[in-house]
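Dock thiamine diphosphate; give full complex structure.
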Amino acid sequence: MPMVTYLQAINQAMQEEMARDENVMLMGEDVGAMGGAFKVSEGLIERFGKLRIVDTPISESLIIGAGVGLAVLGMRPILEMQFIDFIACGFDQIVNQAATLRYRHGGQASCPIVIRGPGGAGVHGGLYHSQNPESWFFSVPGLKLVAPATAYDAKGLMKSAIRDDDPVLYFEHKFLYRRIKEEIPDEEFLVPIGKAALRSEGTDVTVITYGATVHSAVGAARDLAGEISVEVVDLRTLLPLDWGMIRASVRKTGKALIVHEARLTGGIGAEIAARIAEELFEDLDGPVMRLGSRDTHNAFAAPMEAFILPDKLKITEAIRKLARY
Amino acid sequence: MTEQKERELYFWMVLVREFEARVAALDKQGKLAGGVYSGRGQEAATVGVCHALRPDDWVFPLHRDMGAYLVKGADPNRLMAQIFGRRDGFSKGKDSYLHGGDLAHGIFGATSMLAATLPVAAGMAYKFRMKNEDRLAVAFFGEGASSRGDAHEAMNFAGVHKLPVIFVCENNFYAYSTPNELQFAVENVADRAAGYGFKGEVASGNDLHTVMNVMQKATDRARRGEGPTFIELKTYRYHGHSEHDRAAYRTEEELVTWESRDPIELWEHYMDKRKYDLPAIQAETLARARKVVEDAVAFAEASPEPTGPEAMDDLYATPVGEGR
Ligand SMILES: Cc1ncc(C[n+]2csc(CCOP(=O)(O)OP(=O)(O)O)c2C)c(N)n1
């Protein structure tokens, strides 16, 4: 099996889907000849031509809105935000246009778009190149949200997202682009949207997480081996949540910690915690705990960034605290 | 113009170039963590525009407009500390580069979201109008940023209310790798001004005299209450989009063509023709500029890094609730 980076996995998925279906295309800023700011779309314009790989003006609202128009007619556009932070400039086209399209047409129309781009912190990107905007979209019905942590999932989820008939927001973590490298199968595979994965099995505490913090949580679980038995659930899809896997794991351990790099308040962890408290109260042996970024902006200076972000040590501390109940 | 003024303008262009050259070098040495965007080659644009302004006017620089900060009066020491992400920077380390404005000098800090400053500039200009203040707002943006809806919304509003705002588009032919022919279909971006009901001017951004002339017309118009101007300055950035970009999308020939119309060399040529003592002026100006830059680097390096908990400061006028 070939070694593939997280970034290459996304590239492969787009290429395979474009080769399989001529209606798959890519639109974004500098995605063509330059192959994107991070080279995620390297080689695509040479292979698929500039009609399908569209270098757009700097117009995020246009990119998404035009994507909707294409999608209604059966095209499957992948829409790149050069940094996911710029998704804010296309907000209306996502939450009002794309998300309600099927609904307001009484089921007549599909909107098979994928909006993707690099998000996440840890690279001193500062206020506008570090954000985790998934929570802004989490309460919008009609959208699907995915956030892969591994190269395997990056590829499999991208392929599923492209084939999905509804709008999928695909959150890439730029910290993982070249740091994650793994063997993935040669033959075709998909990762279904809506299915979480167990990254480590355990019996004392469940850590529910996604994206870059999956790796910190697995690291914490390894460090705690022999002391506390930690189960790590990688959500992979944020909307819809794989409630079945969350429930099964929390029933087994009786203790749940939710970790994400997005801000704590109003984050996805809040919803998961509330639902665990409502439905699994009898199974719990401790409070449902959460760890996220501090309730502030993504500050630039290294000491502040470290203060804000959850990391392996903070996760380890939180697991210890929860295990003591 | 007096010789003194001409020498002062020269100093500003040289200072901007030296300052940015030093920042690029620091970036290469790995001393800066954030992105660095050089405006080398575009100095006449920011210097010519900002030199026409008064202290109580406002400017809205974007990522390549270091010159606007310097000429409008930002302390070079604090500017360098800002780039280092230190506590003495304008944003106290909360962001780097040109994301923390210096409000005391009428310099508004931009977000990364291109053209998002233009509506803000229009809002300020509305206030000047409303309160009969003889002040201007000047918003810089690239030709790439001109494609964003915010640019359209700002200009439309400014036209409706004949606001004292000047929109300065530095058209350097590439937005990252994207050439003008993929960015817009008009010949000049400023041709759009007609659609907003105000005047558009297209001029060389490398020739300081030209920049100052169009700026004079625009400020006169705005101060007379005749509304906005859209100034498009054709210019070129010598470096890549950021210091990490090798700019493979353009030719050596194109770059050299523009380098041979270098704004600073053009001005030197002019001063030489005026029979000033050019070698002496060059030596003195360079030494003066380098001193400013060296002092700024020393100041920035001595400025403390912010501590982690300072990340919770400056969120609200009065801290609210129990921050988590
Ligand atoms: C809304 C938004 N989309 C994308 C970007 C990423 N980006 C940063 S600079 C840039 C190119 C800007 O080109 P232009 O406006 O012409 O200014 P120049 O860099 O040429 O000075 C891009 C695409 C951004 N900062 N903001």
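Observed: Residues A 29, 58, 60, 82, 86, 89; B 64, 112-114, 142-145, 148, 172, 174-176, 241 surround thiamine diphosphate (CB under 6 Å).
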